[in-house]
UniProtKB/TrEMBL annotation:
<keyword id="KW-0732">Signal</keyword>
<dbReference type="GO" id="GO:0016787">
    <property type="term" value="F:hydrolase activity"/>
</dbReference>
<keyword id="KW-0378">Hydrolase</keyword>
<protein>
    <submittedName>
        <fullName>Alpha/beta hydrolase family protein</fullName>
    </submittedName>
</protein>
<feature type="signal peptide">
    <location>
        <begin position="1"/>
        <end position="20"/>
    </location>
</feature>
<feature type="domain" description="Dienelactone hydrolase">
    <location>
        <begin position="161"/>
        <end position="258"/>
    </location>
</feature>
<dbReference type="InterPro" id="IPR029058">
    <property type="entry name" value="AB_hydrolase_fold"/>
</dbReference>
<dbReference type="Pfam" id="PF01738">
    <property type="entry name" value="DLH"/>
</dbReference>
<dbReference type="InterPro" id="IPR002925">
    <property type="entry name" value="Dienelactn_hydro"/>
</dbReference>
<dbReference type="InterPro" id="IPR050955">
    <property type="entry name" value="Plant_Biomass_Hydrol_Est"/>
</dbReference>
Length: 287
C-alpha cells in the first residue's frame, strides 16, 4: 500500500462564523473575504478537494509529488486535525500542523481532511472524528464510526486505488481530536498502515493487542489538562504488555496541550516515520 499521513488539529479562531458561511465551496475558497495567512503559504501546493457521499461533504487538502515517475510508488501520509480546526473552509485544518516540510525531502502523497463543526451551541454529535469526551480517562470505541471518520476511510481507500501509492508505506498522524482519530483508524483499519504518530490523543485500550505489529510513536505533554497524559501512557503500556516492541512514547516535561509543536517540527520524527515499512521489524524502541 502507499504512504498516507493523516493530520488532526485543535482550536482555531482564524475565521469568523460569518466568513465561514460566506465561503461555502471548499474547492474554491474566497480569499478576498479571508486573505491567505502567513502559515498557509507552506501549503500552497496542497490542492483543494472534497468527497461527497449520502448528503455529507468532507473537504480535504491533497498533495502529490511534483514529479511522478512512471511505475514508481510513493508513500502516503494521512493527517487528522483537532477540534478547533473543524469547519468547511478547507484551510484551517492545517493551521496547527506546522511540520518540517517533509514532502520536499521525501516525495509523497499527503491528505488532510476537514471534519465539520457543530452548530453554535450544539453538542458535537457526529461533528467529530471520534465520539468521546476528550478529557475522559477512558472510552470504548463505538461499533460504527462517525460519518466524518467513515468518509475519511473512504477517502483513504480512494486515494490508494487511484494514485501511485506504495501500500507498504502508508502513515497516519493527528493531534488532539486528530490524535484520537489516529488511534481509532488504527483500531479499525490497522492493516493499512506502516506506522503512526498519535499526538496528545487517546484510544480504547481493549484494542491494544491488535496494534502490537504496528510501529507507533506517541507524543504527549505531561502538563496537558485537556487530554490527560494517562491516555497515551495507558495505550502504549498495554501495547507493550501484549508484545508490541515497536510502540514508544515521548512525554514532554512541562508541556500542556500543545505537544504537536515540538513533535511536527522535529525532523527526527519524520525520518523515523518514513523509515518504516510494513513487514520490517525495525529497531526496538528505547524504554
Amino acid at each position: 500500500m502507499k504512504l498516507l499521513v493523516i493530520f488532526c488539529a485543535c482550536s482555531l479562531t482564524f475565521f469568523s462564523t460569518a466568513n465561514a458561511q460566506a465561503v461555502p465551496d471548499p474547492i474554491h475558497p474566497n480569499f478576498s473575504i479571508a486573505p491567505v495567512q502567513e502559515w498557509e503559504k507552506q501549503f500552497d501546493a496542497f490542492t483543494f478537494k472534497k468527497l461527497e457521499k449520502d448528503g455529507h461533504v468532507l473537504p480535504y487538502r491533497f498533495y502529490q509529488p511534483v514529479k511522478i515517475r512512471p511505475g514508481k510508488k510513493y508513500p502516503l501520509v494521512l493527517f487528522f486535525h483537532g477540534a478547533g480546526e473543524r469547519g468547511n473552509d478547507n484551510r484551517k485544518q492545517l493551521m496547527r500542523f506546522k511540520p518540517v516540510a517533509f514532502w520536499e525531502k521525501e516525495p509523497c502523497y499527503v491528505i488532510a481532511p476537514q471534519c465539520p463543526a457543530p452548530g453554535a451551541g450544539e453538542p458535537d454529535g457526529e461533528a467529530t472524528w471520534v465520539q468521546t469526551g476528550f478529557g475522559w480517562p477512558s472510552h470504548q470505541m463505538k461499533a460504527q464510526p462517525t460519518w466524518p471518520m467513515q468518509l475519511a476511510m473512504l477517502l483513504l481507500d480512494s486515494i490508494i486505488r487511484n494514485n501511485n501509492i506504495d501500500t507498504n508505506r502508508i502513515y497516519v498522524t493527528g493531534l488532539s481530536m486528530g490524535g484520537f482519530a489516529t488511534w481509532e483508524i488504527l483500531q479499525r483499519e490497522g492493516h493499512l498502515f506502516a506506522a503512526a504518530v498519535p499526538v496528545c490523543g487517546g484510544a480504547d485500550t481493549s484494542f491494544a493487542k491488535q496494534l502490537t505489529g504496528i510501529p507507533i510513536w506517541a507524543f504527549h505533554g505531561d502538563a496537558d489538562s485537556t487530554v490527560i497524559p494517562q491516555r497515551s501512557i495507558d495505550m502504549i503500556t498495554r501495547i507493550r504488555e501484549n508484545g508490541g516492541r515497536e510502540a514508544k512514547l515521548t512525554m514532554y516535561p512541562g508541556v500542556g496541550h500543545g505537544a504537536w509543536t515540538p513533535t511536527y517540527s522535529n525532523v527526527e520524527v519524520w525520518n523515523w516515520l518514513f523509515s518504516q515499512k510494513k513487514g520490517d521489524a525495525g529497531p526496538a524502541p528505547a524504554k
